[in-house]
Amino acid sequence: MTIIxxxxxxxxxxxxxxxxxxxxxLLLDTEHTYRDGWLDAFEKMGIDKNAxxxxxxxxxxxxxxxxxLAADLGDAMVSEIRQARETYILSQMTxxxxxxxxxxxxxxxxxKKKGLKLAVVSSTVSSRAIPLLENADLLPYFxxxxxxxxxxxxxxxxxxxxxxxxxxxxEESQALAVEDSFTGALSATKAxxxxxxxxxxSFNAQFSDAALAQLTLxxxxxxxxxxxxxx
Length: 231
Known about the structure:
Layout: E1 2-3, E2 18-21, H1 31-45, H2 62-73, H3 75-94, H4 104-113, E3 117-121, H5 126-135, E4 144-146, H6 159-168, E5 175-179, H7 182-190, E6 194-197, H8 209-212, E7 217-220, H9 224-230
Parallel strand pairs: 2-3, 2-5, 3-4, 5-6, 6-7
Antiparallel strand pairs: 1-7
């Protein structure tokens, strides 16, 4: 792992006061479940699953995926697809088939011991995100939440992180964002936050030098334990 700008949060106005965490693919290993949820819904609805590049949907909000599907299938069918998918995701969660990412509890506990404020900033809607966090015993760690149904402009736009900063009551120079996707990391960068990037290994996510050059990076790591060790 390479740590960049290691002294960013050590002095003056740059003193670290808050950390903003993405949810899916970072705290919880949900991406395979989400993909399989689409496939299950498509099969139930008799839709050609090969017509869509589901890998490209990782990190997109519910509004963004709805728009993609509605262009082909119409709003009524999209609502049925989304309901079928949510039913599948709920079944996996209640069966404890959605793993917690390595180091999730460790980094949240370390941050709390340091007196840092914590936010979860996710494109996932609150009706799904809150049960996921509760089921994983992660919800009590967070002081504020920004979910996909609370802001109309989603990642990679800066709005979710700007909303989190307002709720946290901190400046962008005092907050660190932790993300697994380029979409989320770019959103945080545009909002003025420094980013610790942990590529989601579920789909062998990799980032080019050109992509990384667009981000304000604190570091790139393999899992959340590495960030916990830096706090």
